[in-house]
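Researcher: Please generate the 3D structure of the following complex. Treat every line as part of one assembly.
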Amino acid sequence: MSLSYETNFQVIAPAAPAPSEAAERNARLPHFLGLRAAAGPVLNTLRAAVVGTGSVGRNVALHLARLHPAELYLVDRGCFKAESLLTQPTGPEDVGQPKASSTGRFCQAISPYTRVHVYDGGVERLLPTALADADVVFLATDNLSAEVEVGQRCLNLRRPLLHASVHGETLVAQVRCFENTEGAGPCPACGFGSAEWAALSQETTFSCEGSATGSTAATVATQPTLSVSFLCSLAADLALMQMLRLVLGLGKSVSDCMVQYCGYTHQVVVAPLKRNAACPCDHVAWDTAAPPGSSPTWTLRELLVAAKLDTADLTGVSVAVDDLVFTESGQCRTCGTPQSVQRFVRQGHPAATCAICGDAVIGAPFFTHRPVPAALVAGLLDHPLHALGAEHAQGVVVRGPKHTVLFRPVAHAASCTRR
Amino acid sequence: MVLSSAPLPSIPPGGLAALPAVQLNERHEALLQAALAEAGGPLPWRIRKKAEARDLLALSQLARRLVVQQLDLRETLRALLFLNVSIPLRPGGHGEFLVGNYAVLGLSYPQEALCKQLPGFAFLEILAPEGVWHANVGTFPGQRLCLGAQLPAGIRVKELVLMAYGALTMQTVQIDEWDSAGVLNAEAALWWQQNTARLPLSRVPFLGTEDLEP
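Model: Done. Output below.
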């Protein structure tokens, strides 16, 4: 697999150029009732992300692959176990394999036309802008922390989110569609009650071994999905149905609504999703803009001006660059000399070189910021980002009193072989 | 640092849950308003920071041992706290064991703490004194204080301060050096296992004054 350094994803290289005998999607694609424009061009350029490629998510990914989209992004921290065969469309040969990579290879084999990106890790480890290129995001995880994380990212990035889940005991399959065109809409956490927040607070156990590097070595304890395989696939089927209606504009709007099927009663319920005013998540949708000039030469002042902010009054203004922290000062790990740093640094990595002994200076935790108040870096506004430690900035979030702007370079090149 | 010698206000009915009912004094009100004037972030987060900061200031009014020296609400809620507390010290990690009587704490409470679990060491750093000898206090970078392997999402700032007091006085402590969940200094953990007779360093509750100079 080739490494895409811009994000944490790895790209699965096609085994061979698209074979001439590969099936054309249109050979089986119906002309849907009420379709206003041709489906082909929409699906040809579709970029979809799937977070969680287990009993529900793997089905989602495989369905997506059969639509021959432009790009697929697959994320999962886990590996297949023997028990996975009970609920997931896998075979014995997949046991022990990372779920995202395994699913990605399968998807690539189904659709040589699709550029498949995989990440075998937790979604919280991805760069904040990792899902920004997806036209739609599917969420099919088994843990509440990931629901909050993905919900937050999609809300900020204005990405439509389809959350598919099951409740095995009651034979219920549910799909919630969050439109996310504005921050005022609902997110998955809006539906959390005290039981969900209590359960979320029990999910993750952190190891203090990570404190020296600032990393967060953690164990996520989740309940495995207790369901039958066909209920899981039904949830995936419903999710794809909603996605198709969303991207092709079929039938009534599916935005900000839930559809739920119960196998006991064979009833389907469609209900609206509402924003919870007490939701603790950050209900702010970011505007997206191309940065002024090319990445290494951006200055903070140029970005603030491009965000239509007054650089003379930095009250309520902050900046975040990718997953970097801004370190005001640190301490040499050998001679212990405190010294000024004033740079963006990857958390836990050396922030500077000691002026006394030449060893690494590590940022002082209390004097490390993310996001950094603009007032704190007022003296650095005219320094290009590459001079401040952010040589490979992929996304800069500038937050002002009334709006937030994400600056990103122009989108990546188009995927391989198009028909 | 001169701790207040003014008569303590009485604890409101409802105890620490009723901190919002405490009337802030002039100094604290000025500190809060100055910080609010520069507060950033979306409105719900600014409202929450105001509530948390106000509770912190009210707590320091009820507890003579706590002084809020600085308050920063621009992005992450940050505060510089002076805490009169029995604290274990061993300069250089091998010097004579001492019990200090104060700590300067750097408190950081980011917006993501509202809806996510954060590591126990994410919130507090002991800026002074140096040489803290404690199983749950790191040595580098900075003297991070770990408050546990599992803290709930949305934990309140006042709870963090109270937990810090309990941890530093060693009324609550994790010293199993084989359990990496809460131990930041394995050497100190081992030492304390062999010196449990010294635990706790103080039995005075957070609001108590018996260990404070008159």
